[in-house]
Give the backbone structure.
Amino acid sequence: MEEDFGLLNLSSDEVAYTYKGETYRLSSHPYEPCLYLWRGDICVCALHNAYNPEALVKAFTAGKTVKTNYGKDYDKEYDEAGFCRVLAAALDSGRDDMDFFYAAKLAKERFR
């Protein structure tokens, strides 16, 4: 069931995120912890200081969380639903580039 903040598909060859009827492929950059959300062959959002899809699959399929490490004001653990809230907030912002912690702040304000 897709919540109002989307749904991750961790069982496919490529990690995907479905939100508001659109499916986004998730990829990462090997040199910077960036997470890219692709709709077709267009990158619609780059989240800096984020995670690679393999780490998300490993954590979420095991029922674990992923943790941010940005200092005491931003340290937080995200389960799969919380992570989807951050992705939804990033996409809803309309920005094509932002830090993960900023998207998390937007998610906290939006999905109380």
Q: What stands out?
A: The CA atoms of residues 82 and 107 lie 9 Å apart.
